[in-house]
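Re: your question from the hallway

Yes, I did run it. Sequences:
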Amino acid sequence: MNDIKVIVEKCVGCGLCIKACPYVAISLVDKKAVINEKCTLCGACVDACKRYQAIVITRTTFSGQKVAAYSGIAVLAEHRHDRLSSIVPEIIGAAKVLQKTLNKKLSAILVGKNVKHMAGEIISYGVDEVWMIDNPKIDDFAEDVHASLVTDILLEKKPEIFLGGGTVMGRSLLPRVAARLLTGLTADCTELEMDPEAMILKQTRPAFGGNIMATILCKNHRPQMATVRHKVMKPAKKADDGHEGKIVEMDYIDIPDSQVEVLEFVKEDTNTVNIADADFIVSGGRGLRDPKNFKLIEELAQALGGAVGASRAAVDADWIPYSHQVGQTGKTVNPKIYIACGISGAIQHLAGMKSSDIIIAINNDPNAPIFDVAHYGIVGDLFEVVPELVKQIKGK
Amino acid sequence: MKIIVCIKQVPDTTNVKINPETNTLVREGVESIINPFDMYAIEEAVRLKEKYEGTVTALSMGPPQVESALRESVSLGVDEIYLLSDRAFAGADTLATAYTLAAGINNLEGADVVLMGKQAIDGDTGQVGPGVAENLGLPHITDVRKIEEIDGNGYMTVQRLLEDGYVRLKVKLPAVLTVVKEINEPRMPSLKGKMRAKSKEMKVWTAADLDIDKERIGLSGSPTWVTKIFTPPKPKGGKIFQGETRDTVSELLDELVKGGIPIKRGGGK
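Structure:
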């Protein structure tokens, strides 16, 4: 039976577990930790009590796959509109770091219609094998078909690690695959590392809106699956002298019919909308005061070749569509540079952009919380600062 | 039409503050709320009911105090509420949670539409929706920003938000949908709804009430284990520029260029 227990003799009443518990499920009674029914057995307190080892979780797990039968690393080669998604080199980059410790084959799963021409590019990033199904029946957006074929390939090839993108597609497809294979899946990882002794994948991800980080293992089930947050991992570079790799066609696998009919794809102006993919994001908030002032933000974004983001306040006021919203109820972004203009920096907004490489805040209130996370800040009137930035960047 | 909306009770991270000295979360007085994304799922379920007739059932898994979240959903227009609650469910990761919720949905003899928010704000995984669909053998569509219509033959047309636009999809019901904020603007609870919420009977199901494999629920049904939880490093104090706009902007750009940041600066001096 699974349970969590405080070993009363070992508990010193230090309260570290209380601080660590995300669910307010521990209190001190007579200077001993007591765990109440709010506990979700998440294990945060066990980690916090490493020193005294006074909290233990006993657990059994349902019997999984034969771990020893699984070997190597596989990545999902996501693609759309005849091109590999920009996250693919990042996943391969992360996989290659793992490969250094694991020292096993690195493969990619490539499924779709007219995808063969992408296989060479995948190999050039340092992939050893491309497991491919190229069939005109497989629509880009027929995710159920993709999920089914990816599952079949994994069942046959048995990699011990399978990584996908933390993209809309990846985060929809991989949970389905994991549920079919009955294995673990960790969402939106920002760090992946091999435990060099146990040879298990350590998967680290933010939770609670980025306020805490959790490291997660999948010990007894295979493949160990994770989606990788976009723009975090260092992308693999194409080998100059070419990399030897082979294409394994798996077209003997039956293609199921999709239960979803794709009517149309409607592209939005990617230059300023696609904040998931942008290296530079300029975001506007309540400080803009009027929807027409988003023009300033757009001008700066264009000068930098970046995308336009927005705070929830600006989206809720209907100043700009939801697809631009950065934050807890919008998108999580990871650009090289994030410029927040007239955004005070509520915790929900920070959750969506805190891990950007460089954060620049422009705000007239020197006490705005955005300055606490900013690497650089200008205290000033954005209506002066932003146009001046555009002017100096353009060099007029 | 039968609509089931799966909801989760989460700590209200809106009120979470970081203790600047210890760099840990301050959780005192943090209230529990319905996961914000699930509020949009509830609203959409109620709108579907109003448009196409039917019932909305809210289903949740969690400890007994989740009752307050389910009651709140009644005040927003939900008809029936069910809670899956058992110590044996505790510690479930997304695989075990999806399995358990699907068993609950099966106990309710299925639905035409299963709705939930795109992810919960505590775990931020978004994995339970697709997992529930897989367990039920139904198609799923994530990140739905609009339900256009349900036609007479039981096909639903939706718009799904993507990074670079959206895609219009048509799916035969039953199906599982996860929704984004853009889909609607949730209503406020009505006075009548609040009264109803108080008196509404809530059914609680334990593991024994569900047709499940006991190995596959809670901690024992969870392949993933959390081994470490830590607070991300506190950002170092940034460089703040104040003064004449032209100077501050110029100093900032100089600093960025010095730091090797690829900002192209045009011809001027």
